[in-house]
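Q: Please design a sequence for this.
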């Protein structure tokens, strides 16, 4: 039996981190804040298990440090929307009896906030691997292996979907089939070609 493994950010849920600070700084100011604080690099480390309070200590400017510390509390603002079309595909897979799982690079601190906005994230997956809880991020081979062990699936039985090509290549390196996500229509065509839809 084939198992379909979804990434979540930019595949099922849109993520716009600057929205955490738009209310206070405006759109351009929020984007500039992300640049000058090295937010994306710090966030990637948070996905690997580092706490945001710890990362904030690397920011010298007092106001920026305070705003960065508030990210977890503001997180729900950054994930307001679903990615168009992919939830419907996920539901069709489940209706056909296809096991559906997820591996996401996501901080253990912000994950509960994301679930508050999108409760189905904690309900629809047979096996869910959140990088921040594991201390391992994609494309490390171990995170795909953890999914397979917990799902009771061989890598060759898994189709992995991610918007990050490097993560797709990581999945392929452990023996999974990999699909680079661009939009729901293209994903639907790829899954139909594999007789999964």
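A: Design:
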């Amino acid at each position: 039996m084939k198992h379909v493994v979804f990434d979540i950010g930019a595949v099922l849920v849109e993520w716009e981190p600057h929205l955490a600070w738009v209310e206070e700084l405006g759109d351009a100011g929020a984007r500039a804040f992300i640049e000058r604080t090295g937010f994306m690099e710090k966030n990637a480390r948070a996905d690997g298990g580092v706490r945001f309070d710890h990362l904030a200590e690397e920011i010298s400017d007092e106001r920026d440090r305070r705003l960065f510390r508030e990210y977890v509390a503001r997180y729900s603002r950054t994930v307001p929307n679903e990615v168009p079309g992919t939830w419907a595909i996920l539901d069709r897979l489940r209706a056909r009896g296809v096991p559906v799982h997820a591996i996401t690079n996501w901080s253990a601190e912000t994950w509960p906030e994301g679930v508050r906005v999108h409760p189905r994230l904690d309900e629809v997956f047979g096996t869910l691997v959140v990088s921040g809880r594991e201390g391992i991020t994609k494309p490390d081979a171990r995170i795909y292996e953890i999914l397979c062990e917990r799902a009771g699936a061989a890598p060759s039985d898994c189709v992995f979907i991610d918007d990050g090509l490097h993560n797709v290549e990581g999945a392929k390196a452990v023996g999974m089939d990999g699909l680079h996500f661009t939009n729901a229509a293209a994903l639907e065509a790829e899954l139909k070609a594999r007789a999964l839809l």
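Q: Thanks. Anything notable?
A: Strands lie at 3-6, 100-104, 128-130, 158-162, 177-180. Residues 101 and 126 are 5 Å apart (CA to CA).
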